[in-house]
Amino acid sequence: MKTYSLWRCLPAMLVASVILMNAPMVSAQGQGQGQGRGRGGGGGAAFQNATEEQREALRQMNDEVREHGQKVRQARTDLNAAIYSAKVDEADIKAKVAALAKAEEEQAIARAKAFAKVKSKLSSEQIEALKQGGGGFGFGGGRGGGARRGGNN
Questions:
Q1: Beta-carbon neighbour count of residue 65 at 10 Å?
Q2: Which pLDDT score, from 0 to 100, does residue 23 have?
Q3: For residues 138 and 45, is the Cβ–Cβ distance under 8 A?
Q4: How far apart are alpha carbons 131 and 14 in whole angstroms?
Q5: What is the DSSP letter of 4?
Q6: C-alpha angle 124-129-135 in degrees, rounded to nearest 5
Q7: Contacts for 57 with CB less than 8 Å, ≥ 6 apart
Q8: Which of 7, 52, 92, 98 has the most beta carbons within 10 angstroms of its beta carbon?
Q9: What's the burial of 58, exposed, middle or buried (CB within 10 Å: 0-12/13-18/19+)?
Q10: What is the dihedral of CA 15, 18, 21, 23, to 10 degrees?
Q11: What are the start-end ranges of the E strands in 34-100?
Q12: How far does CA 72 lie from the centroid of its chain?
């Protein structure tokens, strides 16, 4: 039976401990921004042949709701921070849930208003693609599967 000294095994043990310590952080990061048809992506073939007027209409819709999307993401981040804080503060969590609900409500109204402005420029196939895509307005690149591009946005 071979015996190994502690000093000979130490480098391997250090590497193993670093890998094990970082595994929870890597798995907690999720999928990140994805390419293609993630949640909010939508579109696909319905927008490949879009006219320049239709593409501009979709850009305007995105511009009109972008700020609301940022507010929703921030509200979710704040809620997660409250949920996973060292001390459970029910009042703070309830306040964060209410803030998230308000941000999502404002985003939904902004989407509806933006869509109403450009609906007449889109085909029924494109409108259906928007409905199926979850509100990403057909450009893809929403959160979800695909190649990771960085942080958890």
A1: 23
A2: 47
A3: no
A4: 51
A5: -
A6: 120
A7: 117, 118, 121, 122
A8: 92
A9: buried
A10: -80
A11: none
A12: 10
What pLDDT is attached to residue 140?
43
Question: 58, 115 in Cβ contact below 8 A?
Answer: no
pLDDT confidence of residue 63:
92
The residue whose two tokens read 């494109």 is 126
**Can you give the pLDDT at residue 76?**
98
Return the pLDDT at 130: 86
Spatial contact of 146 and 38, defined as CB atoms under 8 Å apart: yes
Q: Which amino acid type is present at position 78?
A: D
Residues constituting the chain: 153
Q: Which of 65, 86, 73, 48 is nearest to 143 (CA)?
A: 73
